[in-house]
Design a protein that fits this description.
Layout (H helix, E strand, L loop, with lengths): L5 H6 L7 H15 L4 H5 L1 E4 L2 E4 L11 H17 L13 E6 L5 H12 L5 E7 L2 H13 L6 E5 L15 E6 L6 H4 L22 H13 E10 L5 H11 L4 E6 L5 E7 L5
Parallel strand pairs: 3-4, 3-6, 4-5, 6-7
Antiparallel strand pairs: 1-2, 7-9, 8-9
The structure holds glutamine.
């Protein structure tokens, strides 16, 4: 904005700014006063130590979603380390991760970045979204963080057959921060959320429409022994685990609480098929 960093502003409070910069500063202050999130005004948000581009085409990554990423990384690493039950060789068959509703690409990029830091090769992430605008933002983030060799982006809708994975092999892990706010509650969210895409927030009457749709797809997309980790909202743990039990009889289902103690991540492992 002023072309200098925060340290320069603090170190030289006496510096006067010209009229053009003063006007530009006043304009962003006005946007903030109107309730626009700082992340949209600045054009980026920190997520798991990564600077991610964001704009109103995507949800701003939330700190609680870092838990989703942590669980996903943990399960992916376990999958990499496990002796493959089938004779397939990990060298030629990567561990496949599907990030559903990737938005800004935050989850996919954070997983890819963490695996790269651990030098864990052999993972491919397919990140899908039904919003072309979101995919444009995700593309910028994938490129900026140099994980394009790990993360592939694709326009796809959960309503599509196999959620858009028609011609894809089964995946080893599904991760998703789908919209899960009940429709009636969307209007009651903090004003900042009114600047975010409704598509990324509104999960239908009880908020679980898309989560349930995804659970119903798991038998057709998830490989034997595969895991799904899905972000959910406050008060949804019971309904989400009940839906998992109903749709995937005999599955393992558990919910991980976030740092605020709110049940936040639903982890589901369908029963192994013979
Ligand atoms: N945690 C977000 C909120 O409460 C919702 C994100 C989502 O629906 N995936 O604003």
């Amino acid at each position: 904005m002023l072309g200098v960093d925060r340290t320069a502003v603090l170190a030289h409070p006496e510096v006067r700014i010209d009229a053009g910069r003063a006007a530009a500063l006043a304009a962003v202050v006005d946007r903030r006063v109107a309730g626009e999130p700082i992340a949209y005004i600045r054009g980026f948000k920190e997520f798991r130590g990564l600077r991610l581009a964001v704009d109103p085409r995507v949800l701003i990554p939330r700190p609680e979603t870092e838990l989703l990423v942590d669980v996903a990384i943990d399960r992916t690493v376990a999958c990499l380390g496990s002796v493959a039950p089938s004779p397939r060789s990990r060298a030629s068959q990567p561990v496949r991760v599907w990030d559903v509703g990737t938005g800004s690409g935050a989850v996919a990029v954070a997983i890819a970045d963490a695996l790269r830091r651990r030098r864990a090769a052999g993972v491919r992430i397919l990140a899908t979204d039904s919003s072309p605008g979101a995919l444009a933002v995700a593309t910028a983030n994938v490129v900026a963080h140099r994980v394009a060799h790990i993360v592939q982006l694709r326009l796809a809708d959960l309503a599509d057959e196999r959620g858009g994975l028609e011609n894809e092999p089964l995946v080893d892990m599904v991760v998703g921060n789908l919209p899960y706010v009940p429709t009636d509650e969307v209007a009651r969210l903090a004003v900042a959320a009114s600047f975010e895409p409704r598509l990324a927030l509104d999960g239908g009457a009880d908020g679980l429409d898309l989560v349930v749709r995804l659970l119903s797809l798991l038998p057709s997309v998830l490989a034997t022994g595969g895991t799904a980790v899905l972000e959910i909202g406050a008060g949804q743990a019971e309904a989400a685990t009940n839906a998992a039990a109903a749709l995937l009889p005999g599955c393992f289902a558990t919910v991980h609480p976030d740092l605020a103690g709110i049940p936040r991540v639903l982890e589901v492992r369908p029963m192994a098929r013979d």
